Recover the amino acids of this structure.
């Protein structure tokens, strides 16, 4: 392939994951070329909730490590990134959920994370806007929120990173072909195109999980923490059928960002009004006062889900020169910094900060028959 | 001819005039201020863009979708 070598590494996709990878590589002294055609992806659609999830040890390790990265970045993030370390309250609606909260506290504490079980009275004192009959909540103090699109700009503002608007139409090892016919080569190509990776690499087992969000007008601030029902874990992992869960996030502007829904198999960006209504009812069920507020926008986005729910971070097992940073599902804004460190460490032959085995692409890409 | 108040200033308009049109007739034409203080004004005129959010008698309304009525108090500075 007669391609021009343009950098040490080409990163395809300037969502939060591609941007974090570019930054991590540039910090190791590599020259990085970032390509994105501005079609837009999940990063602009997401809620920007930075949260530790603990459905399995790999997810807990990656999200906890990433949250620490976010707290380290925090003092340097420009105001437009709207970072706040406001904490998450996992709401327990009944005794069973309170037991779930206690078990979660156990797991997170073992991992050294700041969390506190609140009883009904303490919860009411912390968030008076919540319905009065909740049994309590688990407060996770290290969680936060951010406005991800502006973080992308901050991450890419680095002397070793060049950013260029271009559509990649073909991958060829450590080279790419662009829509205008040009070919660019590098020492390695990192694919970080989110759900659209399938068009370039059809063997990847990524499926879309559509989500819908709604944001209100600005109001005097009454809610401080991000409020998530503990049933979220149940509904988020329900294998079939659309699901909704209460997720209410106070933005620094005084707006409330309300989620969330999950719908398999749809790539249609249109709003499903029935599902949106179900989602809002769920939110109003927890915070009755929401019903009187005005909404100003709603939109949808696609989460790129892998079969086991964990991202693919590392070399493509059958395409030398191609590296993958994909499949971040509903947690990619949170886990971008950790994912980037895992990818950069592998690419630069360093010792990774966490075990990489659960994230290696080869676990999901069995040997080709003729390999 | 409904008579209303825009930021305390009295104005009378033809029947059927929207609050957005009344804003254009009185004051700076704007409905509200963004967080950074920039003044914002109606844009689409058809209830879609939400730029014309304004306080009318203490309630948030869309100026372009609200006809003027006698005695209305429209506040663009809160
Ligand atoms: C409704 C919703 C809510 C969410 N809420 C949260 C949350 O609260 N917290 C959290 O941590 N995560 C959340 N997520 C998940 C998070 O948004 C994603 O995991 C994350 O943004 C994925 O980032 P990415 O960089 O991998 O992909 P993307 O952001 O999709 O970026 C891919 C980029 O690749 C570019 N691209 C694609 N194909 C090409 C091509 N051929 N050539 C050039 N460029 C190309 C696109 O323009 C795009 O910029 C949410 C997701 C959704 C949908
Ligand atoms: S001007 Fe667009 S909604 Fe009123």
């Amino acid at each position: 392939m007669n391609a021009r070598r343009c950098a040490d590494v080409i990163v395809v996709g300037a969502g939060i994951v591609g941007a974090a990878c570019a930054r991590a590589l540039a910090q190791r002294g590599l020259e990085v070329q970032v390509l994105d055609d501005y079609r837009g992806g999940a990063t602009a659609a997401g809620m920007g909730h930075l949260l530790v999830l603990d459905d399995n040890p790999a997810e807990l390790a990656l999200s906890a490590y990433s949250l620490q990265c976010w707290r380290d970045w925090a003092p340097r993030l420009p105001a437009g990134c709207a970072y706040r370390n406001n904490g998450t309250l996992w709401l327990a609606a009944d005794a069973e959920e309170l037991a779930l909260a206690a078990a979660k506290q156990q797991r997170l504490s073992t991992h050294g994370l700041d969390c506190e079980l609140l009883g009904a009275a303490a919860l009411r004192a912390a968030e008076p806007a919540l319905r009065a009959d909740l049994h309590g909540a688990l407060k996770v103090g290290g969680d936060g929120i951010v406005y991800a699109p502006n973080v992308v700009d901050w991450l890419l503002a680095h002397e070793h990173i060049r950013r260029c608007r271009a559509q990649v139409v073909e991958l060829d090892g450590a080279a790419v072909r662009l829509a205008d016919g040009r070919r660019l080569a590098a020492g390695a190509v990192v694919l970080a195109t989110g759900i659209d990776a399938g068009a370039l690499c059809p063997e990847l087992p990524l499926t879309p999980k559509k989500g819908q969000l709604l944001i209100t007008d600005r109001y005097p601030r009454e809610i401080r923490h991000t409020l998530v029902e503990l049933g979220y874990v149940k509904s988020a992992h329900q294998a079939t059928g659309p699901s909704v869960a209460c997720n209410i996030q106070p933005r620094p502007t005084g707006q409330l960002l309300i989620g969330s829904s999950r719908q398999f198999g749809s790539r249609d960006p249109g709003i499903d009004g029935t599902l949106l209504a179900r989602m809002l009812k769920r939110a109003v069920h927890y915070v009755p006062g929401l019903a009187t507020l005005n909404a100003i926008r709603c939109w949808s986005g696609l989460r790129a889900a892998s079969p086991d729910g964990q991202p693919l971070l590392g070399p493509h097992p059958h395409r030398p020169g191609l590296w993958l940073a994909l499949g971040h599902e509903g947690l990619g804004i949170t886990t971008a910094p950790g994912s980037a460190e895992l990818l950069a460490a592998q690419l630069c032959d360093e010792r990774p900060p966490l075990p990489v085995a659960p994230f290696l692409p080869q676990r999901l890409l069995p040997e080709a028959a003729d390999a | 001819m409904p008579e209303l108040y825009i930021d305390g200033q009295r104005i009378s308009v033809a029947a059927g005039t929207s609050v957005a049109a009344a804003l254009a007739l009185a004051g700076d034409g704007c409905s509200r201020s963004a967080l950074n203080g920039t003044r914002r004004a109606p844009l689409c005129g058809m209830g879609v863009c939400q730029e014309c959010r304004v306080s009318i008698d203490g309630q948030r309304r869309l100026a372009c979708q609200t006809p003027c009525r006698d005695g209305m108090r429209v506040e663009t500075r809160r």
In short: The longest strand of chain B covers residues 3-6. Chain B has one domain: 3-75. The beta strands of chain B are 3-6, 9-12, 32-33, 39-40, 53-56, 59-62, 73-75.
